[in-house]
């Protein structure tokens, strides 16, 4: 069985070198006509590729030419067609961020990993958190807060001491970043269906930016976050090395 493969590569020299070798060996189909898209780079480039190709039918298979490569498979030049035919598919639903800025403008973006709010200046942010229309925290004084999907739970969320979430758990993590008050608040686990609203109090003196998978919006006054189940990102992994196994393994590292 032949496969039409489209290659995409980051600007890193190692990724560009791999692109030249692999496209010469396997051909390089247009993405709109491909059976599968092979992304060469790191996790950041994989996220970019998933966002960019979300309207296409082809799943994305990553090969690591970056640093961490949590969303990537190992890099090998040989046997690629056979690896793609054996690969197992995971489906990821992103978060939808709806951010309102102080000038009244509104910005919508999707995030496969997390939506985060971060202080924009030297002073700590003051945030008010509402879940499903019910006020849950009147004031969180912190460097920021984030809502993470299971796929993103080992990224920024984990660095902020948030929990690792199993794939398929239908749970989101709400995690504080360097909380000052309440100092011992460890965040919350929320159902995937939850609608989280975070309001910025005193945004003039304590400005805050919002970020969805590295796409940033400055001077936000409120951010609404909820899952987007109608959007499905298809990602391929070698057998035995899928996201579920990686998330479990990470907890014993």
UniProtKB/TrEMBL annotation:
Keywords: ATP-binding, Cytoplasm, Kinase, NAD, NADP, Nucleotide-binding, Signal, Transferase. GO terms for molecular function: NAD+ kinase activity. It is found in: Cytoplasm. NAD(+) binds at residues 43-44, 113-114, 143, 151, 154-159, 178. Pfam families: NAD_kinase, NAD_kinase_C. It is an enzyme of class 2 (transferase). It catalyses: NAD(+) + ATP = ADP + NADP(+) + H(+). Its EC number is 2.7.1.23. It comes from the Bacteria. Residues 1-17 form the signal peptide. The active site is at residue 43. Its cofactor is a divalent metal cation. Involved in the regulation of the intracellular balance of NAD and NADP, and is a key enzyme in the biosynthesis of NADP. Catalyzes specifically the phosphorylation on 2'-hydroxyl of the adenosine moiety of NAD to yield NADP. Belongs to the NAD kinase family. PANTHER family: NAD KINASE. HAMAP family: NAD_kinase (MF_00361). This is NAD kinase. The gene is nadK.
């Amino acid at each position: 069985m032949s496969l039409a493969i489209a290659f995409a590569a980051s600007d890193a020299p190692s990724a560009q070198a791999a692109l030249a070798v692999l496209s010469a060996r396997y051909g390089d189909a247009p993405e709109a006509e491909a059976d599968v898209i092979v992304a060469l780079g790191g996790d950041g480039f994989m996220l970019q590729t998933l966002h960019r190709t979300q309207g296409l039918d082809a799943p994305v298979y990553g090969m690591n030419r970056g640093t961490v490569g949590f969303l990537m498979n190992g890099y090998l030049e040989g046997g690629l067609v056979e690896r793609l035919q054996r690969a197992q598919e995971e489906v990821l639903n992103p978060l939808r961020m709806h951010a309102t800025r102080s000038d009244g403008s509104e910005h919508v973006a999707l995030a496969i990993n997390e939506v985060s709010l971060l202080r924009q200046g030297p002073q700590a942010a003051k945030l008010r958190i509402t879940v499903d229309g019910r006020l849950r925290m009147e004031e969180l004084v912190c460097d920021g807060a984030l809502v993470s999907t299971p796929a993103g739970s080992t990224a920024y969320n984990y660095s902020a001491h948030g929990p690792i979430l199993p794939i398929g758990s239908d749970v989101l993590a709400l995690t504080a970043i360097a909380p000052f008050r309440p100092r011992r608040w460890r965040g919350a686990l929320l159902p995937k269906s939850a609608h989280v609203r975070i309001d910025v109090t005193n945004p003039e003196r304590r400005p805050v930016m919002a970020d969805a998978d590295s796409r940033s919006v400055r001077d936000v006054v409120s951010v609404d976050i909820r899952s987007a189940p109608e959007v499905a990102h298809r990602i391929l992994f070698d057998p035995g090395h899928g996201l579920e196994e990686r998330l479990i393994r990470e907890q014993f590292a």
